[in-house]
Amino acid sequence: MKTLKNTIAVVAIATLLFSSNLFAQDNASSTAAVNIKILKAISMTSTYNSNDLPDYAAAGNGGGTVTVTPGTINAANFLVQGEASEAITVSYDASVSLAHDGGGAALIFTSNVDQSSDNVNNTGDVADGGIVNLNASGDMNLWVGGSIAILNTSGAGNYTGTFNISVAY
After folding, report:
1. Checking phi first, is residue 62 left (phi over 0); if not, alpha (psi -120 to 50) or beta?
2. What is the tens place of the pLDDT at every residue in 13-40?
3. CA distances from 109 to 17, 86, 156 (A)
4. Domain range annotation of the chain
5. Which terminus of the chain is more solvent-facing, meaning fewer CB atoms within 10 Å of its CB: N or C?
6. pTM score, whole prediction
């Protein structure tokens, strides 16, 4: 009887030990696509890189405002080229300090940037940090104009400054 009890005990212990490995395994798997689009390098070429405001004869005679409209002959123009129909961010100086060549008080140029998908027709203002789309050919023209408030105390002479503009995907 003792042997039967021992045998039953051994079988019971073995059953318990091996039964822990008999549970059904539960697992799952799946897949995910990995995609990348490599964009054409973006570039910007200055086709006319200067805002040439007309001479102003008010120095010492009273103030006024001189304006260059984007898209006109005196406005700066930049051709952006990149991936067709992609969105780009346009960043630029909203205002530029113009130093007087004689050391007098500076003037402030307040910029205005317009966009066009061709070289002729402006399609609207672009805010600093604004997002626009390149056309189906991957082009965009950015036109820079703006205004300068002339003070009645502005001294005669030349005023110069640098306007910065950049684009990125």
Report:
1. left
2. 555 555 555 556 788 999 998 988 888 9
3. 86, 31, 17
4. 43-168
5. N
6. 0.73
